[in-house]
């Protein structure tokens, strides 16, 4: 993103004056629009638009084997892809770096450690037969148009997609011996809803100059010194934290940011929940 | 301007739908066609097939989506949405993408980059003379990469390249503001593309190429001073001593909050008009700004569903009343 010196100073000055280029204050979000069920083949999907940022998340559930150290839980993996329609620089392998960065940040914010403990998504609900079979959730994010704040948008999209996800009901026949694969019967029309209320939401605070802003546009992101992304759940607990950008931050600023993020997340969760609810209602009426 | 979606309530959606329907009813576009529509012509008249038409099975069909225009024997389709096509004398706003020998290359939203020759712009000192090698070496002190500048279309050369010129004080580098990008067909060619809105303290440049500059006013004299200052600095650039003008410049680069608010308000008005697909003219922008002030809409609420709907309704009302008076 090329900006002239005059524009850069103007953006920085606007953030210092608490009046950004599109008239927002530092802690204002752009309007968020959510659509659910946009991909019929997936178990759950959602599209989130914030200004010109446009992302899609889909959840695909497949049968798998639990990992050896968490045999009573399912597995979740997150992949993000940046479409070349978003920016010419994403063409070919150009988007790989950003894709990996976003995937890692999302995994860190929403999923727990390698073992799967401490995940924002309740993994034990994905169990079918302990130690033998479980659901693997593949969460795919796609960036269609990029105007900054991709991580927050993807976080909201994943939350909406998970609440939209229906996992087929499974009848497991107990196997005759311990080694044998259990026989299962997947129902075609009965689904259980995933509980997405515990899934945290991501709030990114981008530091430009001496102040930090929420929901930065791509122009503002080009002027950032560092950005801290916090995932906060409904209870106001911080579930994950990542920092981008090489410039250092004073620890007291991080503490300040955490409390601001906590405060903002509660409003955001309420907005997102009502938007998801409205989107689900639209989808079922359509 | 990329597509933006607003969160709207059900009533707002219904109101918007009604307003848009009303606007559609009022449209006066002369016989719009879509691709593969037959254009009714009298083939015995020896007509000439122009742009956007083709002959298929003895009939003239449109190859573009647009309005049919007839000039004597010529039949052509003027597309509704098209990329910017420069015409001589157009005022454009562009961004420098390369400083090349004796020229700058600019992005002006055309299918190719435009060229601004060092020889087709006034030198900072304002003296008319041949450009020397020294001038060529100092080109970056005039415009750098990524600078936003405004210029006039001079014409295309024999080799097909598009040339610009900036032979006046009003052209040149734009600072202290923001660049908006709208669809070029929304900006119509007018007598006046530079606007200084005294009551707001804002400069507005409606580039014919769909790039619009909204920025705090910088007066021509000041600009001149700036340039002089620059050239003076160039001469003294070997000196290590920091110029006493530096802190003064820093101060000058900040925009007062009131002006900034006006810039934002104008910018948001343009954004809304471009999203609604209305022609972006000075009168309509000012009207939108005045409406936002009288409705007590804050600058950030201008990019919301309510304001969007009200502006659509306002325009629908105006057009239908205009139509009623004509009938």
From TrEMBL, chain A:
Protein's name in the database: Ribosomal RNA-processing protein 42
GO CC annotation terms, alphabetical: cytoplasmic exosome (RNase complex); nuclear exosome (RNase complex); nucleolus
Cell compartments where the protein resides: Cytoplasm; Nucleus, Nucleolus
Pfam families listed in its UniProt record: RNase_PH, RNase_PH_C
Source organism of this protein record: Amborella trichopoda
Molecular function terms from GO: mRNA 3'-UTR AU-rich region binding
Residue ranges of every copy of the Exoribonuclease phosphorolytic domain listed in the record: 29-168, 199-262
Family statement: Belongs to the RNase PH family.
Any one of the GO BP annotations: U5 snRNA 3'-end processing
Domain of life: Eukaryota
PANTHER family: EXOSOME COMPLEX COMPONENT RRP42, EXOSOME COMPLEX EXONUCLEASE RIBOSOMAL RNA PROCESSING PROTEIN
UniProtKB/TrEMBL annotation, chain B:
UniProt cross-references to InterPro entries, sorted A to Z: Exosome_RNA_bind1/RRP40/RRP4, KH_dom_type_1, KH_dom_type_1_sf, NA-bd_OB-fold, S1_domain, S1_RRP4
Annotated Gene3D superfamilies: 2.40.50.100, Nucleic acid-binding proteins
UniProt keyword RNA-binding present: yes
Keywords from the named record: Exosome, Nucleus, RNA-binding, rRNA processing
Pfam families named in the record: KH_6 (PF15985), S1_RRP4 (PF21266)
Cross-referenced CDD domains: KH-I_Rrp4_eukar, S1_Rrp4
Main location per the UniProt record: nucleus
Protein name (Swiss-Prot/TrEMBL): S1 motif domain-containing protein
Subcellular location as annotated: Nucleus
Gene Ontology annotations of biological process type: CUT catabolic process; exonucleolytic trimming to generate mature 3'-end of 5.8S rRNA from tricistronic rRNA transcript (SSU-rRNA, 5.8S rRNA, LSU-rRNA); negative regulation of post-transcriptional gene silencing; nuclear polyadenylation-dependent rRNA catabolic process; nuclear-transcribed mRNA catabolic process; poly(A)-dependent snoRNA 3'-end processing; TRAMP-dependent tRNA surveillance pathway; U4 snRNA 3'-end processing
Domain S1 motif: 87-167
Domain of life: Eukaryota
Keyword rRNA processing: yes
Entry GO CC: cytoplasmic exosome (RNase complex); nuclear exosome (RNase complex); nucleolus; nucleoplasm
Coiled-coil stretches: none
Family: Belongs to the RRP4 family.
UniProt-recorded Gene Ontology molecular function terms: RNA binding
